[in-house]
Amino acid sequence: MLVICGEVKNNLHFTPGLVAEILSPSTALKDRVTKFDIYQSQGISYFISISLENDNLEIYQLTDGEYKIVKEGAFIKNDFIFEGCDVSIVFKEIWD
Length: 96
Prior knowledge:
By secondary structure, this protein is of the alpha+beta class. It is built from two helices and seven strands.
């Protein structure tokens, strides 16, 4: 899942507002550490880590250059505020 507030022509030439990673056993460490650090350093406002094995997700928001966890659970709803658009996601639908 990727949220982009703005027009995209052929390629993405700006930082997305949100990136979600669905963890798998073979890539979970890379997603939770390496990609987490990359997304944080690139200024991506929100990072979501989704574990289908544990029916759990973690929502991180970039605050003062560092990700802080803002919500954790499975059947949650979260409103994301971006420059140029707002998005509301009901994560319960992932498991339905």
